[in-house]
Hints:
By secondary structure, this protein is mostly helical. It has helices at 4-21, 24-30, 33-55, 65-97, 106-131, 155-185, 190-197, 203-231, 243-246, 258-261, 265-289, 293-310, 312-334; strands at 139-142, 146-148, 253-256.
Amino acid sequence: MTFPINTVYSVFSFIGFVLCMMPLSWHLQAWNIGTCAFMLWTGFGCLNYFINSVIWNGRLDNVAPVWCDISVHYIMALGAAIPACSLCINRRLYHIATSTTVNKTTTDRRREISIDLSLCLGVPILSMIADYIVQGNRFDIYEDYGCNPVIYDTWVALVIYNLPAIVIGLISAIYCLLSIRAFKHRRAQFNSLLSAHSTHLDSRRYFRLMAIAGVDVAFTVPTASLVLYLNAQPGLLSPWLGWEDTHFGFEQVNVFPAVLWRQSGVAATALELTRWFMPFTAVVFFAVFGLTQDARRRYMKLFGVVKTKLGASSFQSSTRLVRSAIKSVHCLTMK
């Protein structure tokens, strides 16, 4: 049985992937590691869930076990990646707002790049490795949803799998509040500080970065807290009996029909919240960065390049073809 909501999700998740990729090139030019990592993690998260929703739309069989292994490990890393990228952005904004030196040495810049990469790549990878401790079996397959990591629900899982996103989100929120406070105290010299740190960063882009990081914190912490609350419900937690007990029968793959898992309020809520968070984040990011005047100017430039390469004659012939098709349809409807 196919539920229409899965088709709707497939459309939105693919749109989310496209929206994240559109502004990526000019953000790479600014060499803002936190923003670029945020876009890549979110974009490929949307793509990951999109592929799952398409492959397992109305089906249950384990048709792509290797893909599922890749998919579930990416999902496990994703739980820490988005909050870590927001932390990286907020931390950078805070250091810009509180900076006392105009010129930075090469050593300082290398140290900043190392810290940013550690947050945006190191933290998610370490989280993914740590999650294996509480991974109950290889993966499960949910009809209309796809592959999903299996976390053996114990108090250890709450600490290793659920809690890090909340902790990282709270630290990020502290940096965000401190940045706002620092801006109020140093408003007069703010523009000079921005230009000193990056030729691609002005006050408008600074506040857009703060907005996207702040919105992510505002949704990550409550969402992660809700998932933690749902997983900690009485009767759902099992006692922690050690490594061998947790990984017993690890190669097992369980399958769940949509009509079954959608009737489980807790499971359905947790699954849908997890996957819908990705396209939501992508849309918010595009609304903040993809609709600016600079972005629209770049879109028009790209459109001009495409038009030049295809040739004006191709556009004219395509226009005539479309007009002819419209007239044909109109004539048919009038008969």
